[in-house]
Amino acid sequence: xxxxxxxxxxxxxxxxxxxxxxxxxxxxxxxxxxxxxxxxxxxxxxxxxxxxxxxxxxxxxxxxxxxxxxxxxxxxxxxxxxxxxxxxxxxxxxxxxxxxxxxxxxxxxxxxxxxxxxxxxxxxxxxxxxxxxxxxxxxxxxxxxx
Length: 146
Description:
Blueprint: E1 11-14, H1 36-44, E2 53-57, E3 66-67, E4 72-75, E5 80-86, E6 97-100, E7 111-115, E8 120-124, E9 126-129, E10 138-142
Parallel strand pairs: 1-2, 2-5, 3-6, 4-7, 5-8, 6-9, 7-10
């Protein structure tokens, strides 16, 4: 199971059922953000820094934990970050969280990732799924890619 350990590691939580994007402190399960995009915005603005972890918690809906209707966009800014699924208590135990892009059209990727040479992004215990009529992919772009 993927989980960061050591000093200086801050864990942030996303809870699609009970979270609140206006939360000032998502470092506890009770203060979790509601959307994955909010966590990605916090990566971009420097709230989440190198070595931190984002745990996307499983909700009561076993079929699809998170339905997204707009492409998720994230900029890593040269950070090493772990984005992982967790159980409904926020514990990393191998629970797989499903992100479903059934609200996207067939030409829109589920996620757009801007990465740089120093980025080390790890996804664990997450499943990116599409609806029945379209295929979506994770799109990674970098200044060094061809």
